[in-house]
Amino acid sequence: MLVEVLKSKLHRLSVTEADLNYIGSITIDKLLLEAAGIIPGEHVYIVNNNNGARLDTYVIEGPAGSGMVCLNGAAARLAQVGDVIIVMTYAQMTPEEAMTFKPKVVFPDTATNHLIS
């Protein structure tokens, strides 16, 4: 049997753009993705702290150091620029692996979406 556990989390990102005319997904600064161990195309879950909306989509890598967090396509209807979101990924593993697994949790500067040293 496998269980699903939190693999990584970007806690309290500020939405910088919302683009209805894009095919879909969320674009996130490459440095944030690397810090959390999230790969382009990976399935992510998103929670909007401002309005309670929850959605899942996939990640597109944005320019490194840009602070970009852009909800694309239909997801753009669920957030406005300035909203604070949490982005999470999950992984399946055996219960034995899950007992010792430590997720990567990143707390960037909410105002700029840059990593805090």
Automatic annotation (TrEMBL):
Cofactor binding, note field? Binds 1 pyruvoyl group covalently per subunit.
User: Pyruvic acid (Ser) (modified residue): where?
Assistant: S25
Superkingdom of this entry's organism?
A: Bacteria
Q: Which Pfam families match?
A: Asp_decarbox
Protein's pathway: Cofactor biosynthesis; (R)-pantothenate biosynthesis; beta-alanine from L-aspartate: step 1/1
Which keywords, in A-to-Z order, does the entry hold? Autocatalytic cleavage, Cytoplasm, Decarboxylase, Lyase, Pantothenate biosynthesis, Pyruvate, Schiff base, Zymogen
Q: What's the cofactor?
A: pyruvate
Where in the cell?
Cytoplasm
Active site (UniProt)? S25 (schiff-base intermediate with substrate), Y58 (proton donor)
Which chemical reaction does it catalyze?
Answer: L-aspartate + H(+) = beta-alanine + CO2
Q: How is it modified after translation?
A: Is synthesized initially as an inactive proenzyme, which is activated by self-cleavage at a specific serine bond to produce a beta-subunit with a hydroxyl group at its C-terminus and an alpha-subunit with a pyruvoyl group at its N-terminus.
CDD domains, sorted: Asp_decarbox
Does the UniProt entry include the keyword Lyase? yes
Q: What is its EC number?
A: 4.1.1.11
Q: Where does substrate bind?
A: T57, G73, A74, A75
In terms of one coarse class, where is the protein primarily found? cytoplasm
Query: Could you say which protein family the record assigns here?
Result: Belongs to the PanD family.
Q: What does this protein do?
A: Catalyzes the pyruvoyl-dependent decarboxylation of aspartate to produce beta-alanine.
Q: Which NCBIfam families match?
A: panD (TIGR00223)
By its UniProt entry, which HAMAP family does this protein fall under?
A: PanD
Q: How does it assemble?
A: Heterooctamer of four alpha and four beta subunits.
The entry's protein name is: Aspartate 1-decarboxylase
Organism encoding this protein: Porphyromonas miyakawae
